[in-house]
Write a structure and sequence with these properties.
Helix 2 packs parallel to helix 3, helix 4 runs parallel beside helix 6 and helix 11 packs across helix 12. The protein is an alpha/beta fold. It has an eight-stranded parallel beta barrel with strand order 1-2-3-4-5-6-7-8, surrounded by eight helices. The chain has a single domain, classed as TIM Barrel, CATH 3.20.20.70. 51% of the residues lie in helices and 18% in strands.
Length: 228
């Protein structure tokens, strides 16, 4: 049974760009936690004056006992931050992360694991990348589902789904958990849930869109009921 992870990046962008009164990340997290979300994630780069380290700490604290994952580029200063924060998972994102940050990853991943944090990588569904994550002792991978969710060709969509399923099964056989993320909505989530190896469905913008009409609590509960 797949779990629902609410990615907060879209809510953060809406807060920063639209300046919506009452839309705070801690408020969103509190409501979504009470509505049954299984986990949260947010991207942090340490460079935005409107979302600083204190804001991040308040957002994480609002999740209470719900698991929280921090998405970062594996820069040394962010890796150190991840060590100090009470997050259960660190998700590494960015292009060429294995080539550009290999030394930092090899240094910090053992420290993060010793601190009890799960390690994940955002990856395209490609075997070569999965092998690199495995060599770095990844606990999970998050496969990019955009090729599936944004494909307007039925044939292309089926092929993209099959590729995701193949990589998910391969990861599972090697002891790596699997999440999927990228353009996932109420309309296309079921085909991804049907992939048995997928443990985690990451959703964000579609929840924002639906919450405008039915409220955040109902949007979360509706999506969770659909994927479970």
């Amino acid at each position: 049974m797949a779990q629902m992870e609410l990615n907060l990046d879209g809510f953060l962008n809406a807060q920063q760009q639209l300046n919506v009164d009452g839309l705070t990340l801690p408020g969103v997290v509190t409501i979504a936690s009470l509505s049954g979300v299984d986990g949260f994630s947010v991207t942090y780069d340490g460079r935005s004056p409107s979302f600083n380290e204190k804001d991040l700490e308040l957002t994480i604290a609002s999740a209470m006992s719900t698991r929280f994952a921090l998405r970062i580029t594996p820069r040394a200063e962010l890796l150190q931050l991840a060590l100090n924060l009470p997050v259960s998972q660190v998700i590494f994102t960015g292009e060429n992360i294995f080539e550009d940050y290999g030394a930092d990853l090899e240094t910090f991943i053992p420290q993060l694991k010793d601190a009890g944090k799960l390690i994940s990588f955002c990856l395209e569904p490609e075997l070569a990348l999965l092998k690199k994550a495995y060599r770095l002792q990844a606990d999970m991978v998050e496969l990019n589902a955009s090729h599936y969710s944004e494909n307007i060709s039925p044939t292309g969509q089926v092929e993209a789904q099959e590729q995701l399923a193949l990589m998910a099964r391969t990861a599972e056989k090697n002891g790596i958990g699997v999440a999927v993320n990228g353009g996932i909505s109420f309309q296309n989530a079921l085909a991804l849930v049907s992939i048995e190896a997928v443990e985690n469905i990451v959703v964000g913008r579609s929840i924002i869109g639906r919450s405008i009409f039915v409220g955040l609590e109902t949007a979360v509960r509706d999506f969770k009921a659909q994927v479970q």
